[in-house]
Amino acid sequence: MSEKLKVAIVGSTGYGGIELIRLLASHPLVEITSVISSSSAGMPIAEWFPHLTDIQTALLDDVDPQGIKAKADVVFTATPAGVAAKLAPQLLDAGLKVIDLSGDFRLQDTALYEKWYKKTPADEQYLKQALYALPEINGDKAQGASFISNPGCFVTSALLGLVPAVKAGWIDPSTIIIDSKSGVSGAGRGASLGTHYSELNENFKAYKVNQHQHVPEIEMVLSEAAGQEVVTTFTPHLVPMTRGILSTMYATVKGEHNAADFIELYKQFYEGRQFVRIRKEGVLPQTKEVWGSNYCDIAFNYDERTGRITIISVIDNLVKGASGQAIQNLNLMMGWDEGLGLQFVPVYP
Ligand SMILES: NC(=O)C1=CN([C@@H]2O[C@H](COP(=O)(O)OP(=O)(O)OC[C@H]3O[C@@H](n4cnc5c(N)ncnc54)[C@H](OP(=O)(O)O)[C@@H]3O)[C@@H](O)[C@H]2O)C=CC1
Ligand SMILES: CC(=O)N[C@@H](CCC(=O)OP(=O)(O)O)C(=O)O
């Protein structure tokens, strides 16, 4: 058998990094050769995360681009906003291929990044090198890429549900409203006031209404699909569950199209793609039905009284919303089947 591709993970002790380790452990063509930590180098990762005992026995490495290059060919950066903006250029200069899970390279417009992320943007020279890749929408461009920017979790759930209808001109893009609910692992592993148990348990709240950093990313892709500038209303919510995003999208239908027509349109659009499943009419998706998997399940309801379509999508934020999608992008980058190492049946119940 030919040698496996060597990959490294920066941010391996965070939720996205730990999920990369879980998923890549059964990837047939990939070997994790370095797990990296900015705060705990030298420590065995399994000591911190005992669920990795006998699975990932390596010691955590330093964040050292040359050292990473000595061990790996591809590196995932699963780091907080602002970190990859500085680190990815060093990794690229060291000769590594990079897949960044953060928002640092998703927006080409640096002023837009500064406005929504409130961080210093990446150097434009490196921004231009990044390919923003949502596999089912523009994944055909990923093969041979050296630097991929992975989409956001809310963004993935919203765009997979909206792009086919926008591209077909079946909905009025100016009427789109996106209402998303996320499990708390979406906020990462770090403790914060808003995410600890007694604040979260038995609670349900909206946050960053029309101010979430995913707004410009959603609008960037919808505008391209529509061929005109699209602005949207986006409200994220935090739900007291660990994993999962459910997005409900509303829009006014243009022309005569009912739910059955939408089902047919989406089936055609996603034909041959492994990870988008279109539901039968009346079978609404639940987050549990994609838990631990790379699937995005989508359903439709058309209301004749209002002329609006309601589109509901579910994903696991840590898989299709982050690490699974990053591996799907790695597969496409390498020219492999996009589903390699990702064909998990959702965990149920
Ligand atoms: N959680 C989710 O559902 C999703 C997350 N994302 C994005 O992916 C990225 C990672 O998210 P997530 O794993 O949840 O976040 P976490 O906060 O759980 O983990 C981030 C990790 O980054 C490491 N880190 C922090 N600062 C640095 C630094 N200066 N240099 C190198 N490493 C650093 C930390 O580990 P250490 O101290 O060991 O270095 C930490 O464990 C974020 O940008 C997030 O927005 C995107 C989609 C979904
Ligand atoms: C529940 C929760 O807090 N979710 C995170 C989404 C994290 C994410 O996807 O981060 P990027 O900015 O890298 O896209 C949030 O709302 O900020």
TrEMBL record:
Residues 6-145 form the Semialdehyde dehydrogenase NAD-binding domain. It is found in: Cytoplasm. It is an enzyme of class 1 (oxidoreductase). Pfam families: Semialdhyde_dh (PF01118), Semialdhyde_dhC_1 (PF22698). Transmembrane segments: none annotated. The active site is at 153. Belongs to the NAGSA dehydrogenase family. Type 1 subfamily. This is N-acetyl-gamma-glutamyl-phosphate reductase. The gene is argC_2.
